[in-house]
C-alpha cells in the first residue's frame, strides 16, 4: 500500500451521499502522520474549483499549481475519513502556508483552540 502524508493533495473516489455513483475529486490529507501509523484511513478536506463563495472552514488555495491542481481551488470545511484504498493517486503537495491556513480555518469551523460559541 502506498503511504500518504499530511499535506498530500490526492485524487479520491467519492461515493455520492445517496450511493448512486462515484466521482473522482481532489482532496488534501489533513490527518497527521502519527494517525496514519496506526490506521488504514486518512482524514481529508475536499477540494473544489468553485471559488465564488468561501464559507466557514474554507480556504482559497494560493499555491494551487504546486498542489497539482488544474484550476484555482478551495480546500473546504467538508472533511471526511476514508480508507487509503479510496485514493487513486497523489497529485501534489499543499504548500506550507496553505496548509497552515487550512488548519486555521478548520480550527475555527470545529471550535478548536479558541473561544467556543455556546448556544444559549
> Mind telling me the C-alpha Rg?
14 Å
Rounded mean pLDDT is: 90
Secondary structure class reads: alpha+beta
Beta-strand content bin: 35-45%
The domain count comes to 1
- What is the overall shape? globular
Described by strand count, sense and barrel closure, the largest sheet is: 6 strands, antiparallel
What is the third-level CATH name, the topology? SH3 type barrels
Low-confidence residue ranges? none
Distance linking N and C termini: 48 Å
The CATH C-level class name: Mainly Beta
Number of DSSP-assigned strands: 6
Widest sheet, order of strands: 4-5-3-2-1-6
| Proportion of residues in helical segments | 10-25%
The helix/strand series, from N terminus to C terminus, equals EEHEEEEH
Task: Give me the CATH architecture, please.
Answer: Roll
Give the secondary structure arrangement, pairings included.
Elements: E1 8-15, E2 22-29, H1 33-38, E3 41-48, E4 59-60, E5 74-83, E6 87-93, H2 96-110
Antiparallel strand pairs: 1-2, 1-6, 2-3, 3-5, 4-5
